[in-house]
Amino acid sequence: MKIPWTTGRPGQAGLALIALLLLSFSPLAAGGKLNVVAATTDLAALVTEVGGDRINVTAIARGYQDPHFVEAKPSFLLSLRKADLLVVVGLQLEIGWLPPLITQSGNPRIQPGGPGYFDASQSAEILEIPTAQVSRAMGDVHPLGNPHYWLDPLNGLRVAGGLVQKLSQMSPADSAYFHQCLEDFRRRLTDAGKRWDEQMKPYRGRKVITYHQSWPNFVKRFGLQVVDYVEPRPGIPPSPAHVVELIALMKRQGVKLILVEPYFDLKTPQSVARETGGQVVVLMPSVGGNKEAGDYIQLFDYDINLLVKAFQQTR
Ligand SMILES: [Zn+2]
Fold first, then answer.
1. What's the pTM?
2. DSSP letter at 63?
3. How far is C-alpha 164 from the chain's CA centre?
């Protein structure tokens, strides 16, 4: 095959051929960095850990937003059009907002099943996989299992490992670098994990309430027990009857902490806390939700420090 470089302006067929060749080549062959778009800041943080300065990373959802419901902005489309790799949480977390953006981007690489589409849930341990059919019509936003799996640091490591494989395929020349970044991340995460385990040790087995079902992986890792939720089902707002039940349950079992994601109204949790002598803790579910939770390890540092303080105050 010969590309008509020397025949002046290439004809239509020549242009199509060039476009085709550009698409099929690794973008690094053209001297650039891989453009990675992550659906959330958590995935952006993980891909940054292993991609280092060899990739450009953009996140779509902000860390303080409910990742189930993100308002689409035109700037998202611009990022998606240029993306070599799109990293998604999967398990239908982004079903309400991401699929139309992917289609509208017109970027064939990042379509589901395409060479630049990476579903991070495939690398993670997934909890709460329903054994019977769950209908979204019932409002349940977790029909395929719990999509908040990044809140177990070991899942963060698993996803980082999957990302290294993907990045290495896309940019083989940087494979050794990506693997080295992964080892560095593993070392820092393991050190931090020992610290977190030590901090949480006195509180293992403690019962808590959470607003949304965001924390099953987190509580499994750190030995807490969630006895109920402010939402009766994921995505369903609390009814007065459910709130009454919740108050009774907390009193009966001596539960003191209500963990709330920053994007939910605090009114109901606060009135439950008042009735039960408990405390509302606004725990951060995502990187970048505030300044302190600036990267993946800092996210857990922030949450665990907050939890320890709340347990100490409600002894
Ligand atoms: Zn959810």
1. 0.89
2. T
3. 17
